[in-house]
Every structure is written in structure tokens, then in C-alpha cells.
Design a protein that fits this description.
85 residues, alpha+beta, 3 helices
């Protein structure tokens, strides 16, 4: 099995960001509140629809993190349901 080694500055930045292995950060709503969610959510059809909506609204050419165009309360409710599933 081959692994990819990240340069130390990139690795340090990733660790400093507080994102555990198997998770990723997204920014939600107009206030861009940061959430760290499991990568398993990528398989969920509802989350995939949110990603398509983000693509339509923001495209792929932004450098400010993955932003989900969704009300924070709705996103919290969605993640709570996912955690119980």
C-alpha cells in the first residue's frame, strides 16, 4: 500500500485546523459557521443534493472552504438525523 506524504507545512496546517481523520470541514449559512462532519455523509443523497446546490451557487473556483448554502438550523437538524441513523 502506497501512502502520500504531505509536506510538513501542509500537514501542520491540517492538524492545526482541528479536523480529525475521516472528517472534513464545511461552512454553513450566511455567517459561514464551521462544522466538522464525517466523510460518510458524502454517501447520503440529501447531503449530495446540498453539494450540488453549493456547486450551482458557488462553483468550484472559490478558495474560502466548502460552503453549504443552507440555513444553519436546517443543517444542524440534518446532521442530528444522520448521527441517529
Amino acid at each position: 500500500m502506497m501512502s502520500i506524504r504531505l509536506p510538513l507545512p501542509i500537514l501542520a496546517k491540517k492538524l492545526a485546523a482541528g479536523v480529525p481523520k475521516g472528517h472534513f470541514a464545511v461552512y454553513v449559512g450566511e455567517s459561514r459557521k464551521r462544522f466538522v462532519i464525517p466523510t460518510s455523509y458524502l454517501k447520503n443523497p440529501t447531503f449530495q443534493a446540498l453539494l450540488r446546490k453549493a456547486e450551482e451557487e458557488f462553483g468550484f473556483e472559490h478558495h474560502s472552504g466548502l460552503t453549504i448554502p443552507c440555513n444553519e438550523d436546517v443543517f444542524v437538524s440534518f446532521t442530528a438525523q444522520m448521527a441517529c441513523a
